[in-house]
Amino acid sequence: MTTTTTWTTVVVALALGGAAACTRPGEQRALDEDAVGVASSQGATVEVVDGLAAIRALTPGHVELWGQAPALELDLTVDAAAAGTWELRFDNAMPDAALAGPAAVTIADLGGPRPTVRVFEVEVPAGTHRLRLAPPDADDPAPFRVAAMADIQTALPEVDDVFARIAADPTVRFVVSMGDLTERGHDDEYALFEQQLEVLGVPYFTTLGNHELWSPASAFRDRYGRASFQFVFKDVAFTFADSGDAGIDPLVHQWIDGWLAAARDRVHLFLTHFPPIDPSGSRAGGFRSRLEGHDLLERLAAGGVDLTLYGHVHTYVQFDNAGIPAFISGGGGARPERWDGIGRHFLLVDLDPEAGRVADVAVVRVD
């Protein structure tokens, strides 16, 4: 995020390759997300349910995926020539996740080089086999805690300090992020980000921000998958929406309507990079269309969303939008807002699905 309307406009215009006048700048990104989590090669097809993982590699006998949810389901389809022993590697996975499948499939846990990498050897006959990777309590609606953060950008070399503070709390199950992982969306920045994640010890599920759009969106998508998605963990729904160009594409709005309906009776968190409406009105910290911002908030309120989390503004703000508790947490280390008195930080979010509520949101300062 930047602190003036002019600079934000420049960032968005550059990210869109000069197409700032387009009425649907995020249309192609939304359309491309339908292909996430599906791949075929030499008699084998992998399809991740709801596209909740990026397939990074598919070669004979080997699959590599980057997860965007704490529990994943996938269909592995093999013909007679591809049947046999397969190695499945899941990056950005829950450390205690186990792989389960039908009786016809034999599964051996091979461990992994670090907690968030889970590797399994699977013996599969010809046919389609539904596999599920999940921790043992994925469906248990007991209270749990997650961390939330955004806006790392130029602080990539030092973000391991923030990750170490999160890792020091063993009750944090995973991190959710509102985007701006990088400054320019370059491959070397993503590589450094993944190197820093090794300090964290739990998975990091994220949408993208405007800074990822300095490069083609495929750079993010090929590594991490969808930027707009929903998953459910322990009966709490987490919905992420791509607002990287200061708005949400109409196709994503349609998905959001479906996700709101699906989560109507659950505790529900909604995360996106730009706040729909700038709470201060002076920091270029809202959607490019106030009408769209108000419309989204109206629908989130009608859909029973319990908490909204945003980034983009490099500070900490607690407020309400449309009666929904809201937090801006842009403390990943990018240039901070002057005079706000807060630098690097993250949020701890305590969730109580049994009681149907967000129990607490606390800010943890790292500087």
Descriptive key words:
single chain, 367 residues, alpha/beta, Immunoglobulin-like, six-stranded mixed beta sheet, five-stranded antiparallel beta sheet, 21 strands
How would you characterize this protein structure?
- There is one protein chain.
- The protein has 367 residues and is of the alpha/beta class.
- It has two domains: 101 residues, Immunoglobulin-like (Sandwich), CATH 2.60.40; 227 residues, Purple Acid Phosphatase, chain A, domain 2.
- A six-stranded mixed β-sheet has the order 14-15-16-17-19-18, with helices on one face. A five-stranded antiparallel β-sheet has the order 1-2-5-10-7, with no helix packed on it.
- A hairpin with a 2-residue loop joins strand 1 and strand 2.
- It is globular.
- The N terminus is likely disordered.
